[in-house]
Amino acid sequence: MSKIPIMLKLNGNWDHYDIFRDFEVDAIVVDENASYEILISTIAEQLSIDTSDKIVEIKYIVNDNCPPMEIRNVMGVRVYMETKKENKNLGSYPLCISVRDFNMQLAITNDSTSACSSGSLNLLEIPSSPAIEEYQSEIITESTQTYIEEGQVYQDKQVVAAVMKNFSVMHKFQFRVKRSSHRSYWLICVAKNCKWHFKATSINESAMSKIRSFSRQHTCSLMDETFIQRKRTAAVVGSIIVPKYCNPKTVYTPKDIQTDMLSEHGLNLSYMQAWRANEKALQFLRGNSSDSYNKLPKYFYILEKTYPGSVVKLKKAADDCFLYAFVALCTSISGWQHCRPIVVVDGTFLKSAYRGIMLTTSTMDATGTIFPLAYAVVDSENDASWKWFFEQFKEAYGERPSMCVVSDKNESILKANIRSKFKKGHLQLHVLYFATTRSYTLDEFNERMLKIEEVDPSVKSYLYVIGYHRWSRVHATVNRTFTMTSNIAESLNAVTKETRELPVFDLLEYMRTLLERWTKEKLLKAKGTFTYLGYKFNKELDDNNTLSQKLRVRASTDHIHTVLDGVKRYIVCLENKKCSCGQFQLDELPCAHALAALRHRKETYENYCSLYYKEEPSAYL
């Protein structure tokens, strides 16, 4: 008859995703034909469990796609043993052990029986015990508690355990758990014959724990080098430094951990210990990357309820795995009607465990700043993901006349590789190219293209292959005013650069809070703005107004004026909002010549500015 080694996980707890966490490890060896009673008695003996007043619950995980299986009888043991035979390694199919009081189980059973017999389940209000109320003002709830003494009351056993782990690291010693249950927590020093011990038990039947006995004096040698090296500090140090990582933009390196631990706690960590503490802290804060995807259905449900009118979509693959996620908040959807229908799209690589791409769409609001519209996480940039993304965008925002999408993802741009030309140090090319994109007339455009050709003829060919209408405002089929490039999308990517390592749930939540914060800031700014136009466009108008002071005006008709600028002559038509310089009609903002004509007519500029430049608080509600 062969023996089977079995790993035991104890003193842990099951989370909402059927994962056993915060456990300790032990092991037993049993015969492959062991009965249910033998298995229970072997576990109880190894873990020092008194089965006369305790109930031992045994569960194990077969695979990630099904809930844990519980062993309740002989058949359960036989199924487990047959499964275990396939892989007899100690770590395969570990048993997760939970211990409960017999009286508590009996009370639950009786309550359930009564509820079933009456056909309904009633929730009863149980008055708090006077013994519990007595301690309410003195209950310790934080694991950062440093001073420990007999009589202290803690919120629950988990807080006690965390406090003692921190205490052991700070005082450079190691303990072991002599006994642990939902009612008691008993610790002793790992050194033999040392008199250090700690004992806490629950108050009556509550979850609170009170320190009953604490002997803080060690009779062993804490300076024993081999003893110190056995101490595993990563989890404890990690729990201490968790607040350092709450802001994703914070850079906190293992070297910083070493410095802070030494200066604040007198703890001298090796670089590897500090690195492990860093990994533990991130794990405590963000959890497992795969668990992050499991949170998305609930998260999207909450988003829909919290932001009525939002469009949130989650798409799964054929094997029920995550594929795409799309979010367009109601505040962005309502604000879109106050923005010019120019959409800038972009994608950026994610650096989390499962990689992926984050797609974003933005536009420019009345203040001339970024106004995010939607964001999504997809597997990669391909035809299928882009098609799905724009389908969801269309559902959220619909279509508007003269709508235009700006992107640097066009294949011809990538093939032309114009950026590689600019990166070779051709600063003059940079200046000429961006000046050409802002040309207001064909004469200006052709003049600047000739200068580009003089510097590097191949660049002119590249720009021609791309198509002038894609990047030149004077050739554009849709008036894009100030949004000629994808710079606002790239600026958004720069803001979210440090968040690309976050798990998908934390990434989406960061984007939500970022948009919410920006919306509130814009709303406050709009309420405090007393100029007709938003800041950027009002400044542009002020600059034009300064230039207009030097100009002379000759009226030809009621709406057509000739404006003289030295030897140059410009024709302004106020009725059609056009000027021969091209700036008035392309910027949809009075140019210097138009302002000179308006001043000649003693007329204000308000009726000649685009409504998209007017800052209204309603755009952010």
> How many beta strands in the DSSP annotation?
23
Roughly what percent helix?
25-40%
Q: What's the helix count?
A: 23
The main sheet orders its strands as 8-9-13-12-11-10
Strand-pairing-aware structural class: alpha+beta
Shape: elongated
Tell me the span between the first and last alpha carbons: 74 Å
Structural commentary:
The structure is a single chain. The chain is α+β, with helices and mostly antiparallel strands. The protein has 23 helices and 23 strands. Residues 103-133, 223-231, 410-425 and 427-432 have low confidence and may be disordered.
Which key phrases capture this entry?
621 residues; alpha+beta; 6-stranded mixed β-sheet
Secondary structure layout plus pairing:
Blueprint (H helix, E strand, L loop, with lengths): L2 E8 L2 E2 L5 E2 L2 E8 L4 H12 L6 E7 L8 E3 L2 H12 L9 E7 H17 L11 H4 L5 E2 L12 E2 L2 H14 L4 E6 L3 E6 L7 E6 L6 E7 L9 H5 L4 H8 L12 H12 L5 H16 L2 H6 L1 H11 L4 E6 L5 E7 L1 H7 L5 E8 L7 E8 L5 E9 L4 H15 L6 E3 L4 H6 L1 H5 L4 H11 L4 H14 L1 H10 L20 H9 L8 H24 L7 H14 L3 E4 L4 E6 L2 E6 L4 E2 L3 H5 L4 H9 L21
Parallel strand pairs: 1-7, 8-9, 16-19
Antiparallel strand pairs: 1-4, 2-3, 5-6, 5-7, 9-13, 10-11, 11-12, 12-13, 14-15, 15-18, 16-17, 17-18, 20-21, 21-22, 22-23
Helix pairs in contact: 7-9, 8-9, 16-17, 17-18, 21-23
